[in-house]
UniProtKB/TrEMBL annotation:
Localization (cell): Cell membrane
Keywords assigned by UniProt, alphabetized: Cell membrane, Membrane, Transmembrane, Transmembrane helix, Transport
Matching PANTHER family: INNER MEMBRANE PROTEIN YGAZ (PTHR34979:SF1)
Topology of the protein relative to the lipid bilayer: Multi-pass membrane protein
An example Gene Ontology biological process: L-valine transmembrane transport
Protein name per UniProt: Branched-chain amino acid transporter AzlC
InterPro entries: Brnchd-chn_aa_trnsp_permease
Residues passing through the membrane, by range: 17-34, 46-65, 134-151, 212-230
Family indicated by similarity: Belongs to the AzlC family.
Stored Pfam families: AzlC
Cellular component per GO, a single term: plasma membrane
Native source species: Roseivivax halodurans JCM 10272
Length: 243
């Protein structure tokens, strides 16, 4: 990795997070533009990004709000999209769970797809102390989360001056493919991704984006089942457990 020769954990995090600017900025710009077209003010658009700080769920909720979907459906859909954050949190707990409360609060707030992906890979490949892990994590936050606010504000301010058909939405699939690809390391991961995608497409006809909720739930169940089966198979073939 480009940051391997850097001693400072914070600077390594900054360097590793820089490539994500290529997708974070267009994604946030697009949200700012779309939110203005949906009737939100500049302050409301910025507040949306500051409070939620989760692009996929923001677009989901905004689309449903524009379609006059019931409030509970918009909230449930956004929550379903963000359920992956709970898994991210569980995965980060062994690494950052012993931090002081205020630092854990910062981590939980800034724990998004990109910061999780970078942190998970770095913590697995490098032996680091607790303070070093926190410094690296906050380093990834700097080029990923902070520009999200600025680009949202710029997109909302520009409003209709930036056409929504300029192709800025390429950032959505590119960002998720870049993050998901390296993380599909086990049969459970692959099964969860495949089933979730298949079910989301199969139930795309459901109103209010409920197919996404269905796909996410079924995908998590499939991944958990495959992981359980793999653990049972490993236990049977382990000589120590066999005796």
């Amino acid at each position: 990795m480009a940051s391997d020769g850097v001693k400072s954990p914070y600077l390594r995090g900054v360097i590793d997070g820089l490539p994500f600017l290529a997708v974070v900025i267009p994604f946030a710009l697009l949200f700012g533009v779309v939110s203005r077209e949906a009737g939100l003010t500049i302050i409301e658009s910025l507040s949306f990004s500051v409070v939620v700080i989760a692009g996929a769920s923001q677009f989901t909720a905004l689309q449903l709000m524009s379609d006059n979907a019931p409030t509970f459906v918009a909230l449930a859909s956004a929550l379903a999209v963000n359920l992956r954050m709970a898994m991210y949190s569980a995965a980060m707990t062994p690494h950052l769970g012993h931090l002081p409360v205020w630092k854990r609060a910062l981590v939980s707030y800034f724990l998004v797809d990109q910061t999780y992906a970078l942190g998970a890979l770095e913590f697995e490949r490098r032996s680091m102390g607790l303070s070093e892990k926190f410094a690296y994590f906050m380093g990834t936050v700097t080029p990923i989360c902070l520009p999200w606010y600025a680009a949202t504000l710029l997109g909302a301010w520009a409003g209709a001056a930036i056409p929504t058909d300029t192709g800025l939405d390429f950032a959505v699939p590119v960002a998720f493919l870049a993050m998901i690809g390296p993380m599909l390391r086990t049969p459970a991961h692959i099964a969860a991704a495949f089933v979730a995608a298949s079910m989301s497409l199969a139930f795309a006809w459901l109103p209010y984006n409920l197919g996404l909720i269905t796909g996410g739930i079924v995908g998590m169940i499939a991944g958990a089942r495959v992981e359980l089966l793999m653990e049972r198979r490993a236990a049977k073939t382990d000589p120590e457990t066999a005796t």
